[in-house]
């Protein structure tokens, strides 16, 4: 068993038994479940909106080369610069080069899952550059030396008492501060960081091909400050985030906000089309967009897995997943957790090492049911499992066990062999995968087939 798998199992076992953790998560997801149906009322035909969004993403991915070239040309025309990065190393080195050329000592960064994917904060710290998270949830997690717990709500697993403890330990604030007071403390600290930073880093919720702009969605205004206050603005974004037209935002912005937070639209929605122009008084002097591949074109090559790239990172599948709600975001051991993480991580990284995530699912289909763009997530989990087996990257013992099971299931006489005590011993003592955390399975004294024959004879 690899260290990745064993770590996942150990963390999952601990979190599944942590009642405090479960209470906090159920409380926070319960608040989400209460507001999302309200946000959905803005759509006259929600299913049509989801289907249309899926078709737009299908079009964008099927013509990805054209859309990205169009985006690049339009951004270049407004003075922006585009850097194509094949992997984490290229992206980080490009950012470091920009920072060093500007003698950057600190930068401010808004919430961005793709910068978590390339471990940008750690990389910059190793090279003597302070990288400060400005999203409140991300700031809390950074202070506590933890990665984000959730795609949309980074500190979802923390109660207000937990946050007060973090601030007390790292910022020496009183333990009895209210959430409002804690927020004001963070605001005061971060405003100073904005003034000092030479570079600002953001992600992008969408890349707009026909205008060469990026769209950023947020509720705190920190992304706007990170993009506009420092003289240099760097955008790091996965190349799958492209949409063909600015008009598509009229659909995607409400979908993202409704399925992400239950809002009709988030508080701040920005379209940034390049650096400050000669006729403008505000904004950065330079703007770089780093288009990150990092395994995405590999996913694109698979006509089935390609659908996972439609994801708009709303986090709805995490909130709906019974596995995520029991083991939490950190147990997955990767940037993207929950159902979408279990689908894309084995393909973005290495299928043989990470295929266990595709098995960490009840296959209830709830993730597919709630997906904003109707990705068939549970089918893609099954596809990953199938790819693992057919590519020979699965467990040899598991393969032998399933072949033995198949042989037995196809031969009635073999199924009827032995009494129920022998069968009970085999499933409960010989194969311990089921009974490790569950009650023993108990076979009846006679199989249904035997009982049926006795009844009709």
Low-confidence stretches: none
* Helical residue percent band: 40-55%
Provide the spatial order of strands within the biggest beta sheet: 1-10-7-4-2-3
Average predicted local confidence, pLDDT? 93
Taking Cα atoms only, what radius of gyration do you get, to the nearest Å? 25 Å
Give the end-to-end Cα distance, rounded to a whole number of Å.
50 Å
CATH superfamily caption of the domain at 42-294? NagB/RpiA/CoA transferase-like
Indicate the proportion of strand residues: 5-15%
In short:
By secondary structure, the protein is an alpha/beta fold. The chain is built from 24 helices and 10 strands. β5 and β6 form a beta hairpin.
Q: What's the topology here?
A:
Elements: H1 3-16, H2 19-40, H3 46-62, H4 64-77, E1 81-85, H5 88-101, E2 106-109, H6 113-117, H7 120-126, E3 130-133, H8 136-143, H9 160-171, H10 179-196, E4 199-202, E5 206-208, E6 213-218, H11 222-228, E7 232-238, E8 242-243, H12 249-261, E9 268-272, E10 286-292, H13 296-300, H14 316-320, H15 322-327, H16 338-348, H17 351-354, H18 356-359, H19 366-370, H20 377-390, H21 396-409, H22 412-416, H23 420-430, H24 448-456
Parallel strand pairs: 1-10, 2-3, 2-4, 4-7, 5-8, 7-10
Antiparallel strand pairs: 5-6, 6-9
Helix pairs in contact: 2-12, 16-20
What keyword list fits this structure?
four-stranded mixed β-sheet, 10% strand, Rossmann fold, alpha/beta, 53% helix, 24 helices, 10 strands, 457 residues
Provide a descriptive summary of the structure in words:
- Among the domains are: 42-294, 3-Layer(aba) Sandwich (Rossmann fold); 410-456, no CATH class.
- The mean pLDDT is 93.
- The chain is built from 24 helices and ten strands.
- The protein has helices at residues 3-16, 19-40, 46-62, 64-77, 88-101, 113-117, 120-126, 136-143, 160-171, 179-196, 222-228, 249-261, 296-300, 316-320, 322-327, 338-348, 351-354, 356-359, 366-370, 377-390, 396-409, 412-416, 420-430, 448-456, and strands spanning 81-85, 106-109, 130-133, 199-202, 206-208, 213-218, 232-238, 242-243, 268-272, 286-292.
- The strands form two sheets. Strands 1-10-7-4-2-3 form a six-stranded parallel beta sheet, sandwiched between helices.
- The N and C termini lie far apart (50 Å).
- It has 457 residues and is an alpha/beta fold.
């Amino acid at each position: 068993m690899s260290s990745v798998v064993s770590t996942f199992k150990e963390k999952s076992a601990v979190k599944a038994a942590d009642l405090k953790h479960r209470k906090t998560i159920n409380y926070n997801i319960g608040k989400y479940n209460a507001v999302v149906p309200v946000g959905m009322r803005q759509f006259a035909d929600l299913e049509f909106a989801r289907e249309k969004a899926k078709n737009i993403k299908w079009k964008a991915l099927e013509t990805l080369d054209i859309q990205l070239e169009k985006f690049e040309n339009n951004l270049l025309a407004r003075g922006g610069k585009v850097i194509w990065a094949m992997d984490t190393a290229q992206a980080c080195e490009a950012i470091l080069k920009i920072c060093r050329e500007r003698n950057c000592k600190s930068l401010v960064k808004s919430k961005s899952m793709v910068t978590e994917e390339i471990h940008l904060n750690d990389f910059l710290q190793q090279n003597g550059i302070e990288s400060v998270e400005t999203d409140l949830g991300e700031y809390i997690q950074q202070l506590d030396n933890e990665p984000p717990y959730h795609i949309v709500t980074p500190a979802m697993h923390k109660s207000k008492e937990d946050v007060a403890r973090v601030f007390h330990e790292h910022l020496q604030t009183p333990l009895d501060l209210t959430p409002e007071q804690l927020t004001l403390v963070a605001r005061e600290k971060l405003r100073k960081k904005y003034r000092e930073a030479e570079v600002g880093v953001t992600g992008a919720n969408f890349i707009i091909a026909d205008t060469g702009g990026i769209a950023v969605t947020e509720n705190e205004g920190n992304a706007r400050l990170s993009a506009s206050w420092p003289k240099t603005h760097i955008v790091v974004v996965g190349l799958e985030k492209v949409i063909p037209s600015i008009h598509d935002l009229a659909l995607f912005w409400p979908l993202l906000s409704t399925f992400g937070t239950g809002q009709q639209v988030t508080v701040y929605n920005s379209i940034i089309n390049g650096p400050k122009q000669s006729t403008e008084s505000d904004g950065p002097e330079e703007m770089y967009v780093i288009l990150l591949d990092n395994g995405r074109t590999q996913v694109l090559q698979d006509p089935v897995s390609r659908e996972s790239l439609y994801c708009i990172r709303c986090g709805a599948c995490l909130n709906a997943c019974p596995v995520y709600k029991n083991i939490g975001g950190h147990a997955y051991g990767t940037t993207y957790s929950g159902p979408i993480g279990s689908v894309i991580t084995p393909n973005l990284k290495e299928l043989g090492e990470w295929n266990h995530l595709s098995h960490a699912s009840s296959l209830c289909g709830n993730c597919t049911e709630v997906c904003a763009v109707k990705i068939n997530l549970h089918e893609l989990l099954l596809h990953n499992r199938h790819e693992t087996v057919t590519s020979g990257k699965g467990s040899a013992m598991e393969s032998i066990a399933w072949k033995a099971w198949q042989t037995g299931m196809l031969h009635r006489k073999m199924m009827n062999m032995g009494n129920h005590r022998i069968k009970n011993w085999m499933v409960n003592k010989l194969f311990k995968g089921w009974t490790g955390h569950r009650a023993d399975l108990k076979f009846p004294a006679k199989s249904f087939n035997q009982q049926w024959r006795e009844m009709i004879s």
